[in-house]
């Protein structure tokens, strides 16, 4: 009723799913879910993910009824400017919203990440008789989530990893937006999930509380496999003239049908009025406080017995770095600078991980079947397997989108800092999960190697062109494209220190020389853009370059210098970090005088802003070729000679 009324008030939204799944929600929240409405951040709460996020109003209604800090007035402003209760859920644990959903299929993948995080942290922190990490992850998902490919990726992975505490409710209502799904969705879903290795409870009447309870008991009794409870439901249940049809999916019922639904369901109250006895029966504040207090008591005993472990778990759940981190990170970067090694940045990334990982047990790595290419596995990595959840490295298989959304789920769970790799060109496969990480402020770290035509012979299908530009335009995404071992280490440090959003670390396959720097310059890398050479003199031209092209800029500057032309080289590994600097700093790095030439082996889009009408961009606005890297760079004009020639044209 509340959901229907809120959609009516907003005159927009999705009444069908909340009305169809309300009976399931009632059983889950009142009889099973362990949570404390007064503390949405309690570590050991059960997680709930609404993968079919268009049904958001059901989640908000339940949050209000159970006693989370959501006022009735807020329900009346569903979907309005400034309201916390948005059209689709946006991560807000304070009111029981664990993760951002709405893009169908990602929620179930987030839930897989949460259940994996729980299993991993339990293996790491629980001790005999002290199960201080011990919670379920529950999910609601609909036909849309089931049709999305990502549900295949994530659910297959959940089956492999035997996530016995993951319990999903499938809203099997046979309806999606275009009507009855039998015209486009005829999978045998129970068989599909059995094939993944799930425990399936088929044919549950989603409007029968006892049947739902029995299914849930069976799901919880099954500890070695994730469970799917297939619930037959009626979309828009209770709206007598439209229930069971797509008409209820995504539009307010209208006053006439809403009144008919009240009558049909025997509900006499006016909109937004919940009788005291019903509100009281839903109120979970006392029960929740009791549940958390019981856990706090057990955690206090754990702390007495294992003080270091308890402190470590608390630090990690707070998302804080160890007290020794800053000093350690600085000396690690200094050590890498002193070693002055020539290597591919993908390899430098592995070295950086090896320098940082011993300090950070929360780092949980992985790759979408490109471990040897991404160099994401390092000497402290230990596989996290179905039978040993204590490892810190996941072989995700060829599942880029699933991987990224699972990482987001782990990041949202807390206690872990997920990083994982694929080729930059395949970031497109994962793209919407990168977007959700950015939107939700989740600090997942995406390692994207083979960053340009420099990967060579695999050819244009594997050579990213538009990817850097397209990732950079994603609000709240930080993209680092380092030029040597030192910038790579600084990029990792920045990614690790970021708490409010994701980072892409974009790396070469091919070796890159070391760039000599002063200690002051090393410290400036974190600013995202800094002067490498000719900072003092007023330059006739300023080169702005990233990654492998910094060497071209340095080579061209040396050539021009021979002819008495002062050319400044600015390395710009992270435009977002640079843009966040003071105007004074930015104007110091990119001075008002002289021409500008930006160089990057990728789409020119984005660089014109830094060239600011005072020069040009050397880039690549077309697809590459299959050939050795050196031949490609020459063919497309990424040579010192070509850069010098372009500079001369500007001078
Ligand atoms: C990735 C993605 N594609 C499309 C949509 C738009 N959309 C929202 S709900 C929906 C249909 C979902 O059907 P189902 O899950 O069966 O929901 P029901 O109508 O049963 O509530 C679609 C296509 C979306 N939210 N996410
Ligand atoms: Mg449906």
How does this model look, in words?
The protein has a 6-stranded parallel beta sheet, with helices on both faces. It contains 27 helices and 20 strands. α1 (2-10) packs across α3 and α5 (106-125) packs across α17 (400-413). The chain is an alpha/beta fold. The model has no long low-confidence stretch (mean pLDDT 97). Residues 16-17, 52, 54, 102-104, 142-145, 148, 171, 173, 175-177, 235, 249 line the site of thiamine diphosphate. Thiamine diphosphate binds at residues 16-17, 52, 54, 102-104, 142-145, 148, 171, 173, 175-177, 235, 249.
Q: Determine the strand fraction and express it as a percent band.
A: 5-15%
Mean pLDDT: 97
Number of helices: 27
Q: Describe the largest sheet.
A: 6 strands, parallel
| Envelope shape | elongated
From the N-terminal CA to the C-terminal CA, the straight-line distance is 71 Å
Please list the strands of the largest sheet in the order they lie side by side. Answer: 10-9-11-12-14-13
Helix and strand composition category: alpha/beta
Uncertain segments: none
- Bound heterogens, unique: thiamine diphosphate, magnesium ion
What's the β-strand tally?
Answer: 20
């Amino acid at each position: 009723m509340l959901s229907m009324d809120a959609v009516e008030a907003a005159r927009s939204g999705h009444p069908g799913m909340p009305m169809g799944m309300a009976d399931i929600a009632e059983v889950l929240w009142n009889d099973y879910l362990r949570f404390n409405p007064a503390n949405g951040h309690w570590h050991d709460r059960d997680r709930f993910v609404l993968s079919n996020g268009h049904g958001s109003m059901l989640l908000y209604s339940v949050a209000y009824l159970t006693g989370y800090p959501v006022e009735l007035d807020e329900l009346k402003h569903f979907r309005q400017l400034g309201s916390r209760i948005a059209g689709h859920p946006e991560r807000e644990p304070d009111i029981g919203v664990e993760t951002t959903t709405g893009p169908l299929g990602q929620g179930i993948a987030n839930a897989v990440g949460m259940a994996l995080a729980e299993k991993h942290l339990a293996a790491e922190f629980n001790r005999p008789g002290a199960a201080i990490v011990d919670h379920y992850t529950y999910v609601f998902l609909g036909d849309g989530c089931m049709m999305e490919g990502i549900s295949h990726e994530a659910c297959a992975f959940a089956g492999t990893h035997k996530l016995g505490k993951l319990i999903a409710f499938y809203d099997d209502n046979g309806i999606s937006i275009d009507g009855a799904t039998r015209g486009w969705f005829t999978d045998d879903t129970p068989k599909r999930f059995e094939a993944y290795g799930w425990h399936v409870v088929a044919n549950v009447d989603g409007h029968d509380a006892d049947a739902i309870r029995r299914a849930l008991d069976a799901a919880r009794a099954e500890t070695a496999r994730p469970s799917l409870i297939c619930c037959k439901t009626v979309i828009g249940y209770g709206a007598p003239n439209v229930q069971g049809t797509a008409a209820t999916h995504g539009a307010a019922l209208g006053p006439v049908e809403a009144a008919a639904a009240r009558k049909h369901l025997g509900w006499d109250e006016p909109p937004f009025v919940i009788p005291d006895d019903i509100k009281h029966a839903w109120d979970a504040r006392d029960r929740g406080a009791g549940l958390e207090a019981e856990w706090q008591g057990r955690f206090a005993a754990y702390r007495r017995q294992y003080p270091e472990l308890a402190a470590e778990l608390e630090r990690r759940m707070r998302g804080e770095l160890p007290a020794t981190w800053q000093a350690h990170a600085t000396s690690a970067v200094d050590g890498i600078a002193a070693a002055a090694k020539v290597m591919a940045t993908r390899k430098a990334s592995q070295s950086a991980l090896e320098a940082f990982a011993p300090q950070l047990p929360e780092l949980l790595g992985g790759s979408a079947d490109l471990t040897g290419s991404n160099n994401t596995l390092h000497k402290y990595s230990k596989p996290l397997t179905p039978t040993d959840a204590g490892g810190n490295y996941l072989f995700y298989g060829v599942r880029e989108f699933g991987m990224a959304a699972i990482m987001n789920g782990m990041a949202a769970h807390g206690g872990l800092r997920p990083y994982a790799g694929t080729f930059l060109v395949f970031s497109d496969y994962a793209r919407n999960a990168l977007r959700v990480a950015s939107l939700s402020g989740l600090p997942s770290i995406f390692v994207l190697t083979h960053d340009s035509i420099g990967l060579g012979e695999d050819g244009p299908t594997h050579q990213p062109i538009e990817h850097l530009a397209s990732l950079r335009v994603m609000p709240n995404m930080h993209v680092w494209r380092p030029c040597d071992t030192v910038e790579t280490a600084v990029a990792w440090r920045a990614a690790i220190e970021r708490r409010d959003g994701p980072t892409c670390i974009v790396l070469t396959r091919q070796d890159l020389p070391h760039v000599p720097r002063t200690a002051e310059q090393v410290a400036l890398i974190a600013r995202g853009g800094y002067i490498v050479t000719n900072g003092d003199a007023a330059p006739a031209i300023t080169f702005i370059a990233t990654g492998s092209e910094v060497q071209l800029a340095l080579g061209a500057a040396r050539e021009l210098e021979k002819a008495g032309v002062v050319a400044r080289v600015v390395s710009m590994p992270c435009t977002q970090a640079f843009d966040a600097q003071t105007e004074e700093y930015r104007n110091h790095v990119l001075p008002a005088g002289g021409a500008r030439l930006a160089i990057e082996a990728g789409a020119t889009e984005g660089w014109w802003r830094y060239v600011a009408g005072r020069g040009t961009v050397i880039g690549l606005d077309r697809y590459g070729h299959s050939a050795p890297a050196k031949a490609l760079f020459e063919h497309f004009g990424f040579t010192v000679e070509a850069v010098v020639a372009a500079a001369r044209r500007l001078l």
